[in-house]
Structures are given as C-alpha cells and as structure tokens.
From TrEMBL, chains A, B, C, D:
<dbReference type="GO" id="GO:0008714">
    <property type="term" value="F:AMP nucleosidase activity"/>
</dbReference>
<dbReference type="InterPro" id="IPR049788">
    <property type="entry name" value="PpnN"/>
</dbReference>
<dbReference type="Pfam" id="PF03641">
    <property type="entry name" value="Lysine_decarbox"/>
</dbReference>
<dbReference type="GO" id="GO:0005829">
    <property type="term" value="C:cytosol"/>
</dbReference>
<dbReference type="Pfam" id="PF14793">
    <property type="entry name" value="DUF4478"/>
</dbReference>
<feature type="domain" description="Pyrimidine/purine nucleotide 5'-monophosphate nucleosidase C-terminal">
    <location>
        <begin position="326"/>
        <end position="445"/>
    </location>
</feature>
<protein>
    <recommendedName>
        <fullName>AMP nucleosidase</fullName>
        <ecNumber>3.2.2.4</ecNumber>
    </recommendedName>
</protein>
<dbReference type="Pfam" id="PF11892">
    <property type="entry name" value="PpnN_C"/>
</dbReference>
<dbReference type="InterPro" id="IPR027820">
    <property type="entry name" value="PpnN_N"/>
</dbReference>
<dbReference type="InterPro" id="IPR037153">
    <property type="entry name" value="PpnN-like_sf"/>
</dbReference>
<dbReference type="InterPro" id="IPR031100">
    <property type="entry name" value="LOG_fam"/>
</dbReference>
<dbReference type="InterPro" id="IPR021826">
    <property type="entry name" value="PpnN_C"/>
</dbReference>
<feature type="domain" description="Pyrimidine/purine nucleotide 5'-monophosphate nucleosidase N-terminal">
    <location>
        <begin position="3"/>
        <end position="110"/>
    </location>
</feature>
<dbReference type="InterPro" id="IPR052341">
    <property type="entry name" value="LOG_family_nucleotidases"/>
</dbReference>
Length: 447, 447, 447, 447
C-alpha cells in the first residue's frame, strides 16, 4: 500500500536543501527520527503503549518527500490503516505529519550547535513554539494544561471529559501531552463545550517529544502539535505556556510532571508567581490524591502542598476556579508588563532544564536522600520518575531494560519506602501501562 | 432575575416597526408565540417533554426587545437557569433566541396572507430557509437528515453518536428535528468527527416548529436553527434539503416522518428521484425495525420497502453508503441542472402540504381503510401519528386530551390491529415519552 | 454576442417564483425596469448622460435568468463591451447586476401595496438598505456622503480625488450617488488612502434609483450598490446613513440635494441633530460657492447658512473636520441610545418624503413664492431642481420635454431672478450636461 | 517628538534575546543598519534620493524596542512627520517597520556564517521570502515584476499607472523595487484595477536592500516588503519570483537590471526557460528604447534582443501579452513539476550571485572588453551600472565619491563610447537623479 499526501500548510514551502535533509540517503539518524515520529502520529489508533512494539510492527513503513509544483508531496509506504477513512487520511493526522516535518527540520537546522545556558534553552523552547504558531499574542490568558495518566479507568476518563466540557463552556483552551486517557478526555469534552459556545478559535495544543510520541500518539483533535526535542524542553514548554494547570490521576509520568512543577514553584524567585494548579478526579479516585499528597508532604514538605489545591468530584468548580485563576494571571502579568503567551519570568533552574538520560548508570547514581535542598530533591525525584517512564514505554528505555534488567534506585530508607508504596499503588491501579498486558516493573527499589 | 442580552447577528438590525410587532402590548397571540418559542430554546436542559408542564413552570418568564445604538437588546425576566454558565448565556442558545425572533418576524411579516397553492407553500419553505441562511449554494450535497426518537435508550443513543461520528469523519453534515435523543446524538458524534477532519464549516441544522419546540428544545450544538410555521412545512423542509436520510428507532413522531417520506417517494412522479434512505440501530434494536417493516408492508405494500434499506449495527457501513449516496445525488442533480441546496423537483402532493389540525373531530374522521390509493393511505396514517405526537407532547394536544379524553382512531380491523400493535410496542419500549413518568395513551383504537 | 454570467452572492438563491417575476413574458413593465437598470450598470463606460440616448443605442440588449444547479445564471444578449475585459465581465459590474436583481425583486415583492405614512416610508428605506447588507451594526460612524456634479472640470475632479484620499487615510468611507465626476473622484482617492492604511473593510456605497441610473451609471469601485425606488427614498437613504456630508460643485442635482438637506435640517425638531456638512472645492471654484450661498441666503435665510461650512482648497482640513465631526456624531448618538447605522431620529416631513412626479403640470403648479414657511419653500425649490434634473437626463423627463417643450417655473420675481441667475451659471460652467453636446435648457423661468 | 507603536503582526513575538540584538547598546553596526532602514521606510515622503542627505537630516532620529505584555512596542524619537496622519502612523508604514525588524533579525540570526555556494545563496533568498510570507503556494503564476526609473517624467509616470491598471484588471499582481516613479505607478494603477475586480488578495510586493532603501523608500501601498541583504540577492529574488517582467524607462539601475536579466537568460541552461519580458513606455519614450536596444545589440549581440519584446504606447496589449505569458509559465512549470512560487530551475551563475562591492578599485578593475564570453560581459556591465547607482544614491557610494572623486571605467573603445552615449542620454533625460538638483556624474569613462 502506497499513499501520497498533498502538500498543506506552510510546510509545503521547503527548499530542495531542506527536502534533502529528510531523505533516507542523507543522514540515517535524522531520517530514523523523522520516520519514527511520522509513524507515531499515523499510528493513533494503536492499542499498545510500547514504542518498541510499534516500531517492530511497522518495519516496512517508509516515508519520502517529493517536490512538486505546488509544494512538497509526501509518499507513505505501508502506513497504519487506522489513519485513514475510506482510503483518505484523516485531516488532523495529515496536519500532524506536517508538524513532525516542521519541528524535525527546525531542530536539525536552527539549533544544531550545543545550547547550554538557561537563556539559550528558554529561547529555543520559545522559538519552537513560535515557529509552530503556538503563541497567540492577542489572546487573554486561557490555556489550561492538563496532565494525567495515559492509562486511566473509564470513570476517570469520563471525569476528564466532563472537566474539559466545563472548561470549554468557559472559553478555556486545552493543552496536554496529547496521548490517550487524561490527555484526550479534556479535549473531547472541550470540543463539545466550544461548539455550544460557538468558539471557532478553539485550541487543542499537544506538546510531545520524539521518545514518547509513539507511546502516546497525538489524537487527531489536537490542532496544534509541537514536537519538542526532549522531555525537559517539553516540560518547560508546558509550564511557560500554561495559565492554569490541572493534574488528573496518572502514573509515573504524571508524578514526574508534578515533581517538576513543584520543584520550580518552590524556587524562592517564583514565590510570587501566579499559576493556579488543581489536582482533581472523580470521587472514586479520592484515595489516589491522598496518597500523592502524603508522598509530597513527606518528601518536599508542607510548603509544597500549598502550591496546589485538590478538588474531588466537582468538574464545574474546577472550571470556575480556573476561570477565576486565569483572570488573576492576566492581572498579574499586566501589572508587570509580562507577556501573556509565554511566561518569561518563571525561574527554571538549570538542573530542571538539562536533559537527563535515563541510563542504568545515571539512574543508580541519583541522589535520593532527604537531606538535600528541597528543589534539589524534587529535581532528582523528577529524574527518577522520568527514568521509570522511559523504562515503561520509551523505545530506548525498553531496550535498555531488556538488556540490563531493571533500573536500581536507592537512597534514604524512608524515602525509598514511600516511593515503593506509591509505585506499587500505580501498578495495582493499572496506571503504568495500558490494560491488556501484565506489568513487569522496570525498576527495583533499594533501601 | 433579569438578564440583558447584547445584540448579535443580523437580527439586531430591526426597525422600530418590527420591534413593536413583538412587544406584548401589540398583539397578544403573536407575543405568546414569540415568548413560548424563546422560553423553549432557553429551557434546553429540561427533563420533561410536556409542553404544558414547561409553560406552567415558567409563568413568570418574560421577554422584551429594547432598541439600542448598536442594535436590539433583549431583556429576559426569570429565564431558566440551565441556559447560563456562571451567569452568562451559552452562545449557542443566544443565537437560538435570535433565530426565534428572525423566524417569528418572518412568519408575521412576509406571509400574512393565506398561502394555499403548492407553489406558494414550497416558496415559503424555501424563503424561510434562505432567510435563515440555511441554503448553501456552493456546497456539494452533504446534508444527512437524521430522524428518530427523542426518548431512546442509552445503547441506542451511543449508537446514534457513533453514526454521527462516522458521518462527520466523511465530511457529511447533520440535520435533525433538534431535540434530545436521536436528534442530538448524531450531532455530538459528528462534532468530534468534524474536529478530527478540521472541518470548520460544519453544519448542525435544526428544523423545528412552534408547537413541538418546547417538547424538543434545540440542543446548543445546533448552529443553524429554523422555526418553520407548522409540522407540514417542517417536514417539507426536511425532505427538500436532505441529500440522504437516516431513521433511527423512535416513536410516533418517527413513524409520522417515515410515512410522510414513503408517501412522497411512492408518488409516480418521484419514481426516479435519487434520495438514499437508511433505517439503522444497534443490534439490540433489530426487532424494532422488523416491526416497522412489517407495518409498512401490510399498509403501504412491498413497493414501499424498496424505498429504503435497513442496516443493523454497522455505523461505518451506514456512513459509507450515505457518502456514496450523496455522490449519486450530486450526479443526478447535476445532469438535470437541479439545485443541490433545495430539491425543487420532488413532487409533494397537496394533502401532504396542507396543515392537519389534530382536533378530536379531525382525528376520528381520518379515513384509515386499506382500500384507498397508497399515497392517500400514507397521508392519513401520517396524520394519525401526527395527532398522537400532539396528544403526547404538544401543548394544544395535551390540553385537548385533558378536556375531551383520548382521540379515537378507527378503520379497517386489520389495519387497526397492526397500528395497535405498533403503538403498544412504542409504549413498552418507552418511546412515547421521556422516562420518569408513566405513559397514558392519548388515543384509543377502534376496529 | 451572448454572454452567460455565473451566479454569485446570495442572489443566486432565487426561487422559481422569483425568477419568473423577472422574465420578459411575465410583466412587461417590471421587465423593462429590470432590463434598463441592468443595461445602465453594464454601460458604465458611457460618454453620454442622456438616458434616452442610451436606451436607444442598445435596443437589441436583452437579459434573461436561467435556473442552474448551483444557482441562477444570467444570459446577456448584446451587452455594452466596456463592461468586459478580454471577454470577461468586470467583477464589480457583475456584482452590480446582482444588486439590480436584488433590489428590483425587493421592490416588486415586499412593498407592492401602497406605503404612505412617514413610518412606512422610512421602514422601507431601512428595509432596502438592510436587505442590501448596507447597514453595518458594529462600526463606529464613518460614512461620508459626497454630493456634487456628474459633470465637473478636471481641476474639480482632481480635487474630489484628493479629498477622497484624505478621507481614506483617516479611515472614513464614501457614499455617493455613484455616477461619474464628483461621485467617482472621492472613491478613487479613498481607494488609495485605504490601501495605504490597510483597510480591507473599505466601503464605497452607491445609492441610486431607476430613473437616474442610466445617466449616472455606478462606477465599478462602488462595492455596495443600492437601487432605491425613487429619488425621494434615495435622498432619505443618503441623509439617514450619512455621518457627515460633503458637497462639491455641481449642477441642478446638487442644488436639489442641498435644498433637501437644508429643508430638513431647518426643521425645529432637528435643531439639535449632529451632522457635519461641508461645501468644498478647489480655489478656482470659490466663486461657485459664493453664488450658492447667496441663493440660499436670499431664499432660505441666514439661518440656513449656519447649517454648513464652506472650505476652499484644503482637502486635508475637510478630512480633519469630518473626522472630528463623526466622533461628535458618535457621542451624540451614544448618549441618546440612537443607532449609528441609521439615523432614525432625523425628522423628515411628509412633503420631503412623498414622490414628486415632474410632469409639466406639476412643475408649473409649484409654489415658488417667498411668503411661505422656509421648509415649505425648500421643499418646493427642491422639487423644481428635481424636475430640471429629470428634463436634463432622465428618460421620462427627456421624452416629456421633447413632446411638450420646456417646463415652466413661476413665482416671486426676485426669487425667479435668483433662480435664473443660478441656473445660467450652471449652464455656463458646463454643469448641466456632460461635455460634448450643447445644452438646451429644459425649463423656462417666468417672473 | 516621541511616538510609540503598538506591536502588530507576528513580529511582536520576539524573545528577549532577539530584542537585545537590535538595541543600540549591543552592537553598533547592526543597530545602525536597523535604524537606517527604519528611518528610510518612515521617510517615504522624501523629496531627495541621496541616502547621505537623508541620514544627515535625521541625525536625532532614534528607535528602540520595548517588551510589553502583548508583544514588542517600538519607540521612535523624532521620526519624519510625513509618516503620520493627524499624529497616527500610516498603517502601511507601520507594517514596513516590522518588515525591517523581521528581515534584519533574519539576516543577523540565521545566516551569520558565510554562505558561498550557489545552493546556499539561493536557499537564503528563498528562506527570506518564505519567512516574509512572500511565497504563495496555492496561487497560479501572477506576479509581474516591474522595473524602471525612480526618476521619470509625468507622461511616463501616467503610463506606468495605466499599465498597472490594465494588469490589475486582469488579476495580475505587481512586484517592484518599491521606490517612487516606475516602482510606484504600476501599484497605484493596479490598486484601482483590483478594486474594480474585487480582488482582495492583491499583492504589491516590494523588494529592496539596505543600501538602496533610503534613496528609494517603499511607498505605503507595498503590502509585502522584503529587505534582502544586498543587491545581488534582491535581483535573484526578483527573477525567481517573477512570472513576467516589464521594464519601463529608467536610468543606471534599470540598465543594471536589464543586463542582469539578459546575462542569465542567455545562459545555455536557461534556453528553454519560459519568462515573458516586455519593455514598454509611452510613445514619447520610443527613442529611449531604440537607444537601449542598440546598446544591447552592440554589446550582447542579436541573440539578446530575442529575449524580450518592445511595445510602445499600448498598456492594454502589454497586459494582454503578460496575461497570456503567465498562462504559458504555468503550463511550462506544471509539465516539469516546477514550483509556481519560486523558479528553482533558473540557472544563475556564481558571478551574478556573488556580491560586488563598488569600490574605486573594483570599478577600475572591471573587465569591459568585448572579447569575452557574452554572459561574462553582461556580468561585468551589470557591475559597472551597479557601481554607478551606488555613486548616485547610496550612502557608501556617495561618501566614496566625495573622498576619491569619480569612478573610472575603462575597456574597449567602442564599448566605452556606447556606454558613454547611453549614460549621457540618461543624464540628459533626468533619469539619474530626482529633479531639483544638477546631476554631477560619479564616473568617468576612459577609452
């Protein structure tokens, strides 16, 4: 099966030099990156979250760019069928392919050299969002970033839809990591809310990165997809574009996001930052939040609990609080002359910005003792959960685990116990992996 | 509670003369019509389908037009709260209020004189749709009219959503009678399908009429609402704008629609008309369709069964068939130079066009014998079911039943038996009225 | 030569009943009206202002409506060639044809019955402008109506362009009677001004009527053309939509407009009306304005002179004053809750609203004595000049003069003398007719 | 006088890093470039074409970027008053300021490193046009590049307007070097033509470069302004975006353009290129074209004359030929799968791409002998005229001449004679400089 896609968007305006960059012949590493991301967005109907499995299944998939008089055509060999309706590619997926090309080219061309200073890293995050037209200069604050598990139960899923609906009715837009579960529900709900409110400028912003995109393929409702180069830049993009954050129940990835956020918000320079954060879920999930709060309290302390609010089983209240919250964000930024579309003034320490490679060595070396500064601890915990996500669903992580066995995490006994307890709960509640397979932990906790 | 709505749409351009037409002081009958329709669209969250009950509940509701420098403001006294989110009216409902004003004014101003000839009636239907901007001159055929019950079970409801989703993925638009149940599901589903296909010109056309609007209030997804003056013109609008028709399970209203459609399609002059019609539902509803088909066969004969197709439990196939069907409609009309946006050439006999008032006298006088021409029989059966709908949910019908007892229907024994059987099935399956009340039949069948 | 025009605009949505209304076979009077207006807009390159001459020249011109699947096609037999570029009709002219159809149909359908009360007349003017989409509800006041001669010299023409340019630079829109000369110059100038200011919602509103349209064909820059049924409704449309008025040098028609305007503004109920009026021209035309002012002073009195301002040779100042003026109009209307888009509160007496037929009898019967109320005198003087315009350029007027000789005007000697002087000046300055023919007066003044 | 401009366009989305790049403090050379270009676009009403004079006159002009919550504000100290209408900057000029920022930033950021290969140079030209949104992927070929003098007489100017009008009526867009004279006339004319044809996607593309922009400030009708880094890239942008080329009478700059074009078209690899080229002017300018043709013939030979057509005094024919020509361009490119929006396949030799710095040394060293390959000769002649333009109107050229006296050109006697003759004619016809100053040649010809 071969399919040709017509050019669309500004992306059809590629120079020959750029087309060459993405050809298989020119550079196999770059081509592999491009091909895998393209495959991931085409594979949205997937029922597995194992990147390796997906890449294995579609070994005969191929993608090529062909120059034509009205722009660049894309030729696909053996693409996943779920991307098509009666032989026609779904437009949303078609757009995502172009987002992939745009962002891979951007990463290859504009920021080839090493970027290391916080200023350069932040500029790159900004530059990629701008290049993707994902910064709206004339809008009031209205982006609610929703985090939460890709694997959640039906009750939780319906709840995320209802929250999305209530946000949509209030004219708020949704940003997520753009996979299934808690990343999809709020967008579906908001779509109906926006339709009832006749909002045609509705935004469903999906932020992803090459190593997670296959496990969490962007659902086609996402109408602005940005592929950041790594998880750290993706997290920075989340927090700098958000005007409010919701955290639904989730697993290791959600824990990583929460720890990243708290680590930043606890920085003294961010003490006055205005950013409403709400943890919410249906009443059946009340226990989950108690567990999370207990973990945060025992690791990052009471102060961390003040950075967010927990609301159980009340989608309308969540939406009302965030509606009020983004108004405060507006006031706060207006007073200071800060941009609405990008939170330049949020202080993000270098240790939250620098990429963490979850090798076995790096994982074992993580300092997980309680007697270190809170932010430092938050940064290290963030890295630990980030590694577990890699081991669960990312291609390289899975390969590494297959080869070397589970990661080893060690540190203070009490901390290790808390962590073990939390992770076991995630496993029991089926939050680590999509249903259908028995979960085998990719880590072991050493006291 | 008083609320003022800002002017919106072209409707804010009213002359003082027109504003006066809709004031309480000027003409109480016209004002009552206007007020009741406005109340109906505001009352969309309603859990009853009894028009009388609704009008009773909101006796202190009032609506006024006020001229302002940028158009006409609307003042509402004591509107239903479900129309508002945090004190702001939902935009979709706001638009519906203006549709009400537009159409009531139209009916009052432009067609005051009696119109009786088929040509004038059809022109009026056209004129109202045009005035409502509901005729798209530059589109290819893509309107799928969906009929079905306002009171259906959850399985059937999910099925209508899935069909809508599959239609939406294929770029088809939805037209319904715009109440709950089978009138809402396809629109919700299509909204998600359209979002994935990036279709921003998505149309959710709702056709209603003053006596049904309270029982079947337009859901806010409807983005084009037209209030035709009576059920006959509404039915004509349905069939002349449709490029394909789906009939989901339903009760007396759905039976009325099916009989109207078959009565017309069986007219010899319509023998060559191209209009795909599909009856569909989940596998649990297979029995329903068997019953309907049996009734049609024994009343209108085998030939009537050839005018439609029954597809059980296959939303994708339904959508594929209709996608193919509208292409044929396009070819057919193109060949003949017929308009795409309005089926001028469909022959509708006068007896299907002339309003039928479901008084007790008219109902008893209905000729329900088998020994009459098929179309004649279809027309009379249509009237019978139309009367039952009135007795079930329309204000005037309910009042008449309260005063005079149930309608009496009589005719050939075998026909009466078939009808009785069908109606009993509707009752048992809960299709006559929304759940929550015991259904007391508004009719009695005499052999 | 036969040309077919594709349907465009909402007008392609005609019902068969409406198409029939405009067919030659159905009603010859209505068809003649339609045909002549269509011919007039096609004949925009014309070098004559004699309606009779134009109708004579194109006796073999014919126009037909043909129903097609995507709307109504128009077939033209032997249209004037100047409407075409390389065989393709100029889009602006194409649109004008549709405006003709829209307005002729409107006049035929909606207001067939006699309308006589001021309220009904004003409603009709409003209704036609609304139907033509010529009322902008969300704009601040910005319409400058420009009056002036269709036959002016090159210096005056360049001056009108410069004034238009300065208005355009300030975001003001132009409304004129839409013929050549002072009706075209301001639009051309404003087009350049608007382009420099990137104003894409630029409006060039042309108001005309069937008996003048051939003599003053709308130039294709006019992007909103409305054909009112008669000169009185056209004048009412001018003053109710204008937020400021400029009067350039002109002949009898311009005098008619000025007298109409002053007659209304002098009404006591209009004493507080806010409407800036400026008479302007190049320094070479200073004498013209002195003459006009003298005539106004001796007929309507000093008070009339206070209703306008004369600015000679200063386009920038004219534009600045009007920019300031429309701001005052905005304040004035906002305070009172008056509409911006239509001046409902302007009092127009019945004698300015009722059509005046310039027959020989009516012309001789005009009461042109000074000893009558000022507004009455203004109304009668307006009629006198209106008649002269008819005798100069309108078909019926020209025919009547050909048959019965010049109109006779009589009244107070001094008034007659003033009038004679003014008219002679118009003749000498070439303002009565386009250059190229010797002007033979259509009137005679009796003391 | 200090003025602040609100952010507009995508350009308001600057990162702090980028804002810093354009601050005076950061890099004086870059800041000077930015300031001078900004001054040039503000100074559009200028009556001199001497860059030095302009920079001298506005020594106290200053420009600063200031970050604000909704983007970047621009603060101007002592800007030229002609850019403002009643204290408000003209929108077109406002946009041009943003084009300056966009392109200066682009040049500074993206292509800092040396680019030398033809492929890289062409990619940069493409990249800048794309970044400026000046490549329209979905349009059929319709860009007519108009070259010609900035200093032409009134008859010639009116002629360029008429040609522009005829092009506009045919839906063709205009690209020029965006100064006065022949660069402005076609745009003004086309504006009226486009208005009559209701073309709202009208494009007035101006291509300039930092050293010429002050002498030829973009007129505000230009709605897409691109500042290429040097004259060679500007010329490449002209020929790769053009679908047809008109050359009006002009001076040294026009000669440079013609020689550049012919040098390229004479390349054997371009033998089949489809690009209509027309030299045209009013009948009074017939002599001018004879002179030019004679010069071309005696230098580049007969073959060069076949690359263009001369049409005297027939704007309509010019427009018709180009309309037909762009259709051929479309066919040609479609057949080959070439892009419509950028002529990738046109072969441009390195010697036409590499920047030529018109120093006294480089000018004297130019090889102006006839016994060299034709393209080589064309390239050198192009450089000679380019140097003369610099000496006439560019800042650095003027300074160099002031310091070292006129450039010296030498070569074959007959060639020198022809050149001298042509240049004298330019001087006599006032084509070298805007009227108002006596022209002192910046060159001397040595045989």
């Amino acid at each position: 099966m071969q399919v040709q896609l017509n050019p669309t968007g500004v992306l059809n305006l590629l120079s020959q030099l750029e087309v060459d960059l993405l050809q298989q012949s020119s550079n196999s590493e770059r081509y592999r990156l491009f091909r895998n991301c393209a495959l991931a967005v085409l594979n949205v109907g997937s029922h597995t979250d194992s990147s390796s499995e997906i890449y294995n299944k579609y070994q005969d998939f191929d993608i090529k760019l062909i120059a034509r008089e009205r722009g660049i055509k894309i030729a696909l060999d053996n693409p996943p069928e779920t991307a098509f309706v009666d032989g026609e590619i779904i437009s949303g997926i078609h757009e995502h392919i172009f987002s992939v090309i745009r962002d891979i080219l951007f990463i290859c061309q504009r920021h080839q050299e090493q970027i290391n200073t916080p200023r350069e890293i932040t500029h790159m995050v900004f530059d990629m969002l701008r290049n993707a037209d994902a910064l709206e200069v004339n809008s009031d604050p209205n982006i609610i970033t929703c985090w939460g598990g890709h694997s959640i139960n039906e009750t939780e899923y319906q709840y995320t839809k209802e929250v999305g609906y209530q946000l949509g009715l209030r004219g708020l837009n949704i940003c997520t990591g753009c996979g299934p579960g808690a990343m999809k529900g709020p967008m579906k709900g908001a779509t109906i809310g926006h339709a009832k409110q006749r909002i045609s400028s509705n935004r469903y912003l999906g932020l992803t990165e090459p190593s997670i995109i296959a496990a969490e393929p962007p659902n086609p409702i996402v109408n602005e997809l940005v592929i950041l180069p790594d998880i750290e830049k993706r997290l920075e993009a989340f927090v700098r574009t958000a005007h409010g954050i919701i955290i639904f129940p989730g697993g290791a990835g959600t824990a990583e996001e929460l720890l990243y956020l708290l680590g930043i918000l606890l920085h003294p320079e961010n003490a006055k930052q205005c950013l409403p954060v709400i943890l919410t879920g249906p009443k059946e999930s009340a226990g989950y939040f108690e567990e999370i709060c207990a973990f945060i309290k025992s690791t990052l302390g009471e102060a961390a609990l003040e950075k967010f609010e927990v609301i159980v089983d009340n989608p309308e209240l969540v939406a009302q609080k965030l509606k009020a919250g983004v108004k405060e964000v507006r006031e706060y930024r207006k007073e200071r002359g800060d941009a609405y579309y990008f939170n330049w003034t949020l202080k993000i320490d270098n240790e939250f910005q620098m990429p963490f490679a979850p090798t076995h060595q790096n994982m074992s070396a993580l300092d997980l003792h309680l007697d270190q500064p809170t932010q430092q601890l938050a940064a290290n915990l963030r890295r630990a959960f980030s590694g577990i996500v890699a081991g669960n669903v990312k291609d390289e992580g899975i390969q590494a685990i297959k080869q070397h066995g589970p990661y080893t995490l060690s540190g203070d006994t009490s901390l290790m116990k808390d962590m073990d307890k939390l992770l076991r709960a995630f496993v029991e509640q089926g939050r680590m992996k999509l249903p259908g397979s028995k979960y085998i932990p990719c880590y072991q906790i050493k006291a």
